[in-house]
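Write out the 3D structure for:
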Amino acid sequence: MALLVDKVFPEPVKRPINSAWNALKKKVTSLFPKQQLKFEENKRSALKGFAEEHTIKATNETSDPKTFLMVVKQKALEKFQSPTKVRLVLKARMEKVLPTDGSSTVGGRNFQSKTAIVLESTNLDELWTEIVEQILENIAVFQMNGSGWTFHSIVSLDIHTVKYKP
């Protein structure tokens, strides 16, 4: 019976390309490790909870604002409870290289969105996309207006919420 099975089902063909491909994939993955963004949250409130500020701090150096905002999206959207007015402030470190001696200066800068109203009928994904585009546009305008500052890293994202009573 075993001989019959061996004749019907031959041994699988060993493909040397698979081992070479896996080795290449492992090498490339080690060269470009996946960046794990870490963050911590804080909350402050005023006026008996009428106004709240949630802060999501970046605990490691982040590569760009778009990636950071994508990673914290779900945590941030949890704070958007209707009916609410919401405004986001991205706090970033900016770097400027001095032309005189080539030394660099790092300073803080805040980039904020416009205040948005969150109702029960609000599509949160669309609202988030709109807010992120506003912040990224503010960063681009700041860098393009001849300031000489370039993006260095993220400090935190502040989410300001106020209860909305239409």
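Strands lie at 39-46, 51-58, 84-97, 104-112, 116-118, 149-163.
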